[in-house]
Amino acid sequence: MAAGTSRKISAASARSHTRRAKQSSGLTLPSGIFPGVLLVVLAGLVAWGYQAIQPPPPKICGSSDGPLVTASRIKLRDGRHLAYREHGVSKDVAKIKVVFIHGFDVCRLDDVIANYTSPEFVEELGIYFVSYDRPGYGESDPHPSRTVKSQVSDIEELADQLGLGSKFYLIGYSLGGQLGWGCLKYIPHRLAGVTLLTPASNYWWPGFPSNLSTEALYKHPPCDYWSLRVAHYAPWLTHWWNTQNWFPILGAISKSPHILSREDKEVAAKLIAKGANNMEHVRQQGEYESLHRDLNVGFGTWEFDPVEMENPFTNNEVSVHLWQGDEDILVPAILQRYIAERHSSWIQYHELAGSGHFFPYLDGMADTIVKTMLNDKE
Q1: Residue 215: CB partners within 8 Å, gap ≥ 6?
Q2: Residue 322 in contact with residue 184, Cβ under 8 Å?
Q3: Residue 38 pLDDT grade (very low, low, confident, very high; cuts 50, 70, 90)
Q4: What is the pLDDT of residue 316?
Q5: pLDDT at 195
Q6: How many CB atoms lie within 10 A of CB 189?
Q7: How many CA atoms lie less than 13 Å away from 315 in the CB half-sphere?
Q8: Phi, psi for residue 80 in degrees, rounded to 5
Q9: In whole angstroms, how far apart are CA 376 and each of 31, 319, 354, 373?
Q10: DSSP state string for 295-313
């Protein structure tokens, strides 16, 4: 019977063998796993980013989860509703009928001209005013395909359904004043007179000299000019840009005092003291369909260039007035002066020294604006 062979192993050799055994039992990652993990992470970031830039659906007035309908409204041809408010004398006896277009982050309740024109003057001349909520504001339905032209169509249809006649006067304020250019372009035959109160200029209208529009744009604080650039170059980012908390958003949305001139701050203090704040009503259907879409349309690519417009009134039978405060921070005067000079043959320009964006609220100013508009007729 054969005997087994005896073998001695040193302590050092045993320790080395144990280490090799432990090392060989560790987790071995499959080749190519890191690119796969990176791809999953990137896909997750893209999905998160896509969700972050998607605006929430609007809360339509009158819907199950939307605000109540409290305003008078018309139903437009495309099925949307447009809310409006009437002021002054009854339209049935009115001699003068005026449509007012509100500006940014306000609504039909903020008709500064109707609210501040003296009642005696309104009665004496028989003036009827109607202000309305632009799409997505207040109680007017949103319009996802909103354009300058579609908003002009809303105004014409409002006038027709209310029976304002073949012609009416138009007053537009701020971003509503900007829409006044659209009315001059598309429905000049319906206009008896036009007044643009510090109408917002689109810095990318081709007719502006590039150095002038750049100078005007950079008169804004950085948070504002970047917000406007986003609205023009990346409108799909406008909602995210103005709702994130990483850096300041557009001052007109955050209500920052840096957008107000000295005079504007005084006027704003008086308005606040009077309790004149309709912001909750203005934004009740959601900020995207009101404020953010307004920015995208107002500062996007337009269908025409107001700077290059020809006089729509060949016989100068209709007066067009443009008002501007020379200390307006929201709408720099330098572009207004350029437009006024280009169209000096058919636009009457009124620049107010020391005034800002809120000059229509000054005592007696509404009367002056209306009297000037009617001067050629009365």
Answers
A1: 334
A2: no
A3: low
A4: 85
A5: 98
A6: 10
A7: 2
A8: -75, 160
A9: 84, 7, 27, 7
A10: HHHHTS--SS-GGGPPPS-
